[in-house]
Structure prediction request, 150 residues.
Amino acid sequence: MERTLIIVKPDAVQRGLTGEIIKRFEQRGLKIIGIKLLQVDRELAETHYDVHRERPFFAGLVEYIISAPVVVMALEGSDAIAAARTTIGATSPSLAAAGTIRGDYALEIGRNLVHGSDSVENGEIEIANFFAESELCGGWARAVDSWVFE
Ligand code: DAT
Ligand code: MG
Prediction:
């Protein structure tokens, strides 16, 4: 099983899309093992987006992500990284397919609603950055698990 960190970004929370976004991941079959609302501080934002530190959009990206509360989730499932990213859609919403979160609800790259980890390794690192181990319910069983996971 893989784990991915999902961030329902400030624009999504402000626009009342939190439930819609959570619903899409739940309906996909991914299992929520951690979830909370928080306002990200600058240090955590800069750590999370450290790989983009030298990019021209870095400062604006950090300001955006700390500007208002977000909902963060740790999701678990087979191929969770790829499954979540296909549900999210392309980074630039103008290129995101209809039926994806970004393709259905976003227009601009700087207001693209949701984050999903890009590799198994980064999923584990990002979840550890946002959640204490005690905040995660790792490996809990759903009655439907055998109908989602073979
Ligand atoms: P993703 O969020 O799809 O994993 P990423 O990791 O390449 O995309 O970039 C992180 C975020 O940074 C992305 O969601 C939006 C912002 N971003 C990326 N490229 C950008 C660009 N060229 N101009 C402005 N913002 C950008
Ligand atoms: Mg990324």
